[in-house]
């Protein structure tokens, strides 16, 4: 979907474990990799596979890594003179590293602090929200961000059980794995302000692209996908872009078997005219 060509510039705005960036570099593309999580930047900076790209000519590097939230995409691209820009990738949501690291508090399947901050410097953790928000505020959060049908009952149980400090304390008062997934997702989205960040980055990304450049977005739940779908549709209707994915690309049985985390993924892509 990115149509990677040797020597052209691309942005991986969600660096994570560096898998997508590695694939672009292998095809000869030059990558500006962003991530708000310092763990991701540190891991990729020290990865043996990236050393040749990181050590390439100072004036014309093949790979540049920057710790930044993608909401600052325009600023980072301008600071590094990363244009003309031929492709931008966003792989939304929590990274595998964050999910499987108990200390980060993203998963109800392991015991850790109720944190969920992708950027450790953010002011409010998930513990802050569950211990400070009112029943009405928690109900709205679970209904809006998790589409939780029992949002009111869940909010009341949380307030009655406060204070809550760890993932297992919260998980124990939720009825089943489906409810735990929805509630943890809601808190994560709220802590990281994910939907607002997505809405803010899309116009930046489109404006930065060179004509013929491509924007590729992988989303994992309906709230994200709806924002992407609506914005892409608006650009397509206005004649500013063409769709490369109609319908969106979803994982087949083999991919889901190899990577269960991909089950809910939807990939949408457009090319700027």
The strands making up the biggest β-sheet line up spatially as 3-2-1-4-5-7-6
Mean pLDDT: 96
What's the N-to-C terminus distance? 15 Å
- Class computed from helices, strands and strand pairing: alpha/beta
Q: Using DSSP, what is the number of strands?
A: 7
Helical residues, percent:
40-55%
CATH homology group of the largest domain = Vaccinia Virus protein VP39
The SSE string, one letter per element, is: EHEHHEHEHHHHHHHEHEHE
Q: Give the overall shape, derived from the CA principal axes.
A: globular
Number of domains: 2
Estimated share of beta-strand residues: 15-25%
- CATH class (first level) name of the largest domain: Alpha Beta
Radius of gyration computed on alpha carbons: 19 Å
Count of helix runs: 13
Task: Profile the largest sheet.
Answer: 7 strands, mixed
Can you name the CATH architecture of the largest domain? 3-Layer(aba) Sandwich
Plain-language structure description:
This protein is of the alpha/beta class and 273 residues long. The protein is built from 13 helices and 7 strands. The chain has 2 domains: 166 residues, 3-Layer(aba) Sandwich (Rossmann fold), CATH 3.40.50; 90 residues, DNA polymerase, domain 1, CATH 1.10.150.170. It has a 7-stranded mixed beta sheet, sandwiched between helices. The mean pLDDT is 96.
């Amino acid at each position: 979907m990115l149509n990677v060509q040797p020597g052209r510039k691309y942005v991986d705005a969600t660096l994570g474990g560096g898998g997508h960036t590695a694939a672009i570099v292998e095809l000869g593309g030059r990558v500006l990799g962003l991530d708000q999580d310092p763990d991701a930047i540190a891991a990729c900076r020290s990865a043996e596979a990236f050393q040749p790209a990181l050590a390439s000519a100072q004036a014309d590097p093949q790979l540049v890594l920057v710790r930044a939230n993608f909401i600052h995409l325009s600023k980072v691209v301008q600071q590094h003179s990363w244009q003309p820009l031929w492709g931008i990738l966003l792989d939304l949501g929590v990274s595998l590293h964050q999910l499987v690291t108990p200390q980060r508090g993203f998963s109800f399947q392991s015991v850790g602090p109720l944190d969920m901050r992708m950027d450790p410097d953010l002011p409010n953790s998930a513990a802050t929200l569950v211990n400070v928000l009112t029943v009405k505020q928690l109900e709205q959060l679970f209904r809006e961000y998790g589409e939780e049908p029992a949002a009111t009952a869940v909010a009341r149980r949380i307030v009655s059980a406060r204070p809550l400090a760890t993932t297992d304390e919260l998980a124990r008062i939720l009825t089943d794995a489906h409810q735990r997934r929805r509630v943890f997702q809601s808190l994560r989205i709220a802590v990281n302000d994910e939907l607002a960040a997505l809405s803010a980055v899309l116009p930046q990304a489109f404006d930065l692209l060179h004509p013929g450049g491509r924007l590729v977005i992988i989303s994992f739940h309906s709230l994200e996908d709806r924002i992407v779908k609506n914005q892409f549709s608006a650009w397509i209707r206005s004649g500013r872009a063409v769709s490369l994915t109609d319908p969106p690309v979803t994982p087949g049985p083999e991919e889901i078997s190899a990577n269960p985390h991909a089950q809910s993924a939807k990939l949408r892509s457009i090319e700027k005219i």
